[in-house]
From TrEMBL:
It is a multi-pass membrane protein. PANTHER family: G-PROTEIN COUPLED RECEPTOR (PTHR24232), G-PROTEIN COUPLED RECEPTOR 55 (PTHR24232:SF56). GO terms for molecular function: cannabinoid receptor activity. This is GPR55 protein. It comes from Nothoprocta ornata.
Amino acid sequence: MTNRSEECDFSTIDSLAKTLQLGISIPTFVLGLVLNTLALSMFCCFWKKQTKTSIYMINLALADVLLLLSLPLKLYYSVTEAPGLLCAFIESLYFVNMYGSIFIIVCITVDRYICIRHPFEGRANQSPKWAILICCLIWAIVWLCSSPMYAFHKNENLKCFHNMSEQAWSIPLIVSVEIFGFLIPLSAMVFCSVQNIFILLNQKSRGKKHEEDSGSLRVITINLVVFLVCFTPVHLGICLQCLVRQHVIEDCSLKQNISFFIQMSMIFANLNCCLDAIFYYFAVKEFCEKTSMKKVIELCPAFKPCAS
């Protein structure tokens, strides 16, 4: 997704970015794959009776696994030329799972908000049917929206995530991505998280459910911080790169800095796959607190998260 210009030399920037990319992406791939595979095993094993939360968590872990599996292809074909059609598939696979994760995280936050703000209605409506429908809709939308990727490359061999056509950086497309792919989800995240925090702090001040509220506060705060840290830089980088491609930014050193920034921001966005394990930990911990140790071992003897 970086820019190429005749008057600017990006070789030094790209070399540094590739080194850092390998240094960060390899541990991210290994750790993320282990954590998300364990999470999927736990969710499928523990939650014999699926709930909305478990459906969202399974889909989030699945999105993380698919994104992680696309990382080796991304690393290899960003330095090696590949056919345009293959590049389009790799890029669409990467972005589908990134935005799939964003929308599923928002769904989890909104669902938590409904349960906290309207506890009786939220607990009464725990059927997984709506969660399954919403997740299917999310997957369908992100895959459909990724279809223009196949028009962003010519047929000749090229390096993936580089040298996209001008269509990929058109203002209407980038504005749509920024608004629907980030700003609206971010607004929902901030609103629901802030409301949840206020409600729980109010309950805590009255001495209600002290320990449970403290745990929920940590999860909500961490959830919001992780979302901001992982996804804000990459969308800022996309916006800046659009300005470069629209010739609004002409300074060579600034172009180089933006090129480096967007490559690094995409790397740090991948860390979300590992940080999502925080949600899985608290979800399994909550399950263990509501289930006897004997029952947990009976359900899934291979995993004993409550024993430690």
